[in-house]
From TrEMBL, chain A:
<feature type="domain" description="HPt">
    <location>
        <begin position="33"/>
        <end position="128"/>
    </location>
</feature>
<dbReference type="GO" id="GO:0043424">
    <property type="term" value="F:protein histidine kinase binding"/>
</dbReference>
<keyword id="KW-0597">Phosphoprotein</keyword>
<dbReference type="InterPro" id="IPR036641">
    <property type="entry name" value="HPT_dom_sf"/>
</dbReference>
<dbReference type="InterPro" id="IPR008207">
    <property type="entry name" value="Sig_transdc_His_kin_Hpt_dom"/>
</dbReference>
<protein>
    <recommendedName>
        <fullName>Histidine-containing phosphotransfer protein</fullName>
    </recommendedName>
</protein>
<dbReference type="GO" id="GO:0009736">
    <property type="term" value="P:cytokinin-activated signaling pathway"/>
</dbReference>
<dbReference type="InterPro" id="IPR045871">
    <property type="entry name" value="AHP1-5/YPD1"/>
</dbReference>
<keyword id="KW-0902">Two-component regulatory system</keyword>
From TrEMBL, chain B:
<dbReference type="Pfam" id="PF00072">
    <property type="entry name" value="Response_reg"/>
</dbReference>
<keyword id="KW-0597">Phosphoprotein</keyword>
<dbReference type="InterPro" id="IPR001789">
    <property type="entry name" value="Sig_transdc_resp-reg_receiver"/>
</dbReference>
<feature type="domain" description="Response regulatory">
    <location>
        <begin position="18"/>
        <end position="133"/>
    </location>
</feature>
<protein>
    <recommendedName>
        <fullName>Response regulatory domain-containing protein</fullName>
    </recommendedName>
</protein>
<feature type="modified residue" description="4-aspartylphosphate">
    <location>
        <position position="68"/>
    </location>
</feature>
<dbReference type="InterPro" id="IPR052048">
    <property type="entry name" value="ST_Response_Regulator"/>
</dbReference>
<dbReference type="InterPro" id="IPR011006">
    <property type="entry name" value="CheY-like_superfamily"/>
</dbReference>
<dbReference type="GO" id="GO:0000160">
    <property type="term" value="P:phosphorelay signal transduction system"/>
</dbReference>
């Protein structure tokens, strides 16, 4: 069972979904808080769902307030970095570059990809925590 | 970049250090609080610069403040300036994802003692504590024991986050 958990975790790193920051979080786990990483992940997905919703609404309105979008994405990138969500972080960076370039189409395209990566990571981490 | 593996996390509870985490992001609040907890440093958490100022107005004081830069209501730069105007002499470490030199300079000039890029890790926080001379507050014996390399054979040193 432990070997299976280790394999799941290894594949998350090998496929680039997680980076070494996730390992830093695991090192913080102790007997007092044996589910610390899972709790932080839950916080992250709750908070990022809110940000995705805000960005979705802003994009649906059709008016591209690039400053506001960039501000949302700055937050998103920050918490994604803190949890080690590597692919999500990359999409956040790309989105911000499109914001700075005033490229609405680029923003829309990247945001779709970001939501995909975010959903995939969520599923994979749920699977990992269930197996642990 | 070589990641430092800390064989044994030092317990600084004996030092009675206290800290305040100032960050609007719940994920970062949770992580920074936990890092301080693991090091045995009692800490409080607030969500923006105004709350950081208010908590000091209520009479609380801390040895170390971990100050995020981008926060609503009152940001880290404004809060740092205000705390210094109030005569707060706590060590303030700016912790932010913004790393360009102009922004870093502006944050430092607001009254920071130290600056560290997010995300925080145990080794980054220990680096802050070392640079801010908090090690002087603990018994030399505690640190000689904890950081004797013979006791920590698995430690790999990251040149950017040296621990002495």
């Amino acid at each position: 069972m432990q070997r299976q958990v280790a394999l799941i975790k290894q594949s998350l790193f090998d496929q680039g979904y997680l980076d070494e920051q996730f390992m830093e979080l695991e090192e913080l786990q102790d007997d007092a808080n044996p589910n610390f990483v899972e709790e932080v992940a839950a916080l992250y997905f709750k908070d990022s769902a809110r940000l995705i919703n805000n960005i979705d609404q802003a994009l649906e309105r059709g008016s591209f307030d690039f400053n506001r979008l960039d501000s949302y994405m700055h937050q998103f990138k920050g918490s994604s970095t803190s949890i080690g969500a590597s692919k999500v972080k990359t999409e956040c960076t790309m989105f911000r570059e499109y914001c700075r370039a005033g490229n609405a189409e680029g923003c829309l395209r990247t945001f779709q990809q970001l939501k995909k990566e975010h959903a995939t990571l969520r599923k994979k981490l749920e699977h990992y925590f269930q197996a642990s | 970049m070589t990641r430092e593996i800390v064989n044994e996390i030092p317990n600084l509870a004996e030092s009675m250090l206290t800290a305040l985490v100032v960050d609007d992001d719940f994920v970062n609040q949770s992580i920074h609080h936990k890092i301080l907890d693991r090091l045995g440093i009692k800490n409080d958490v607030v969500s923006n610069g105004k709350e950081a100022v208010d908590v000091h107005c209520s009479g609380r004081n801390y040895d170390l403040i971990l100050m995020d830069m981008d926060m609503p209501v009152v940001n880290g730069i404004q809060a740092t300036k205000k705390l210094r105007e109030m005569g707060i002499e706590s060590k303030i470490a700016g912790v932010t994802t913004r790393a360009n030199e102009v922004e870093k300079k502006e944050f430092m000039e607001a009254g920071l003692n130290e600056f560290q890029e997010k995300p925080l890790t145990i080794s980054k926080l220990l680096s802050i504590l070392h640079k801010l001379d908090f090690y002087a507050k603990t018994s030399a014996g505690l640190f000689n024991q904890r950081w004797d390399k013979a006791n920590c054979p698995k430690v790999r040193v990251d040149p950017d986050n040296l621990i002495h």
